[in-house]
Structure formats: C-alpha cells, structure tokens
Prior knowledge:
Elements: H1 2-17, H2 21-25, E1 28-36, E2 40-43, H3 45-55, E3 61-70, E4 73-83, E5 89-101, E6 104-115
Amino acid sequence: MADDNKTILEKANAAIMNGDNEGFLSFCTDDTVWTFVGDQTLRGKEAVRRYMASAYLEPPKFMVENLIAEGDFVTALGKIRLKDTNGQMADYAYCDVWRFRDGKMAELKAFVIKTDK
C-alpha cells in the first residue's frame, strides 16, 4: 500500500508540473485538507482549486529528493521553484507530509521555507 501511495503522489506531482491542476485534483479526496504550517489551512477540493489557480499561474518546478512511505503516509522532501507574492520566481525547500485514504490524498501538512537557492 505504501508503494501505491508513492506512485499516486508521483503521478499527481507530474500533473502539477504539466500545468494540469484538475489532473492533480483527481488524486485528492473531496474533503482534502491542506495545512501550510504557519500560514493557512485549505479545506476541501474547491478551496485547493482556488489556491492552485492563484499560486500556480505558472506551473511550479520542483525536485523531489526523497519520498518516504509508511502505512497511509508519504513524506516528500525537496525543492520547489514558483512565483512569490511579488510575482518573482523564488526558490523554496519543502517537506510535505501526505495522508492517504482509500487511494487518494486526504491531507497535507506542508512545511515550506524560502531559500536563496
């Protein structure tokens, strides 16, 4: 099951990098909850859809350095490049902890820190 969840996350991430937000959302539960630690919490697929529409005007570019799976959880560590609040491309380090339910991404706890590179 853990390996299946890793595969699901890899497919979902590929959709985002290709600008296919709806393709990504097809891997999420309708009641998905995304918590950006220290920032905001999004509740439900529609809230995530609105967030993606504004935050991912250009598809983000990211590199997953490690995927660690255990039970219903997959943790992704890596780097992401996307536009910041000023519209400039910026680099971030991230750690995403995903909880899966019935083969879909049900919850995200994201730790994201802006870096110089």
